[in-house]
């Protein structure tokens, strides 16, 4: 772990530097930010602010209106363990137990991947396509639902009335279920435990099959941030030696569960769009294959539609 910066006060917990000095919001923000940055945390100051705001029951920006507010004993007692956890590179979202994702606030813990901005791009594409159909009551299959971020956003924002969401992890599904209840969307979603299509009957077909699958190549593990590698569930991250194992399974199985003209939408790793496009085209089951870039220009979303001529088990 890199120790960066100068003047960083090392130590497990903040304590008054001198007897006549008390901790104020501003001093604590500065000290804690430097402390976290000294532990290798990017944007340590921002994370310190989030944690302090949480302890004080404030919005983060309200801290800026209360720089001189003293932070007293019980508040410091609540703040210290949170700061220690972040210094050990536990993700901020796990410490807070929640994350904002599009229009939803979702519970997250170590059983689920923290939803990412790339997944919002996947949803932008899917929602634009689904709204363009001009019909309500669409049905979707979300493979590897994790916290439920995709499934619940489809119900909240799109013309979807029903989403079937599968995950191999029962623990992840428990979090997703709680999120569906907390967001008032539980009626529209059906969570099923099992590997990708296993909990889906052959005759079930959907307007959309969507997935943000595990797609990191195993060899890339050492290069991941400690927050990801050491804290997020490996089952949510790794897709076999080349990262494409889950995507191969999904591409091979989605056709049978898509209505003619239905969309298969996948989030992929930044070097995977070429192989995934080739995979889709090689099946002869998909048409209109296209790729969408993220804000940094990397190709992160692959979209396709089921060719109308493909045979199906749909009823
Ligand atoms: C990258 S995470 C995506 C989570 C969530 N959909 C999101 O976008 O934030 C992948 C998810 O797939 C699940 N998963 C991994 N292998 C699976 C499998 N064989 N069948 C079903 N789900 C699987 C993991 O448990 C994890 O929740």
Question: Could you explain the architecture of this structure?
Answer:
The termini are far apart. The protein has a seven-stranded mixed sheet, with helices on both faces. A two-stranded antiparallel ribbon has the order 1-2. The protein folds into two domains: 25-88, Orthogonal Bundle (Helicase, Ruva Protein, domain 3); 102-306, Rossmann fold, CATH 3.40.50. The model is unreliable at 1-12, 16-20 and 310-315 (pLDDT under 50). The protein has 315 residues and is of the alpha/beta class. The chain is elongated. It contains eleven helices and nine strands. The protein has helices spanning 25-38, 44-56, 73-87, 92-96, 117-132, 149-157, 170-182, 226-229, 234-237, 245-257, 273-283, and strands at residues 98-101, 104-107, 138-143, 160-167, 189-193, 206-211, 258-267, 286-293, 299-306. The structure holds S-adenosylmethionine (SAM). Residues 113, 115, 119, 143-147, 149-150, 166-169, 172, 195-196, 212-214, 235-236, 246 line the site of S-adenosylmethionine. S-adenosylmethionine is lined by residues 113, 115, 119, 143-147, 149-150, 166-169, 172, 195-196, 212-214, 235-236, 246.
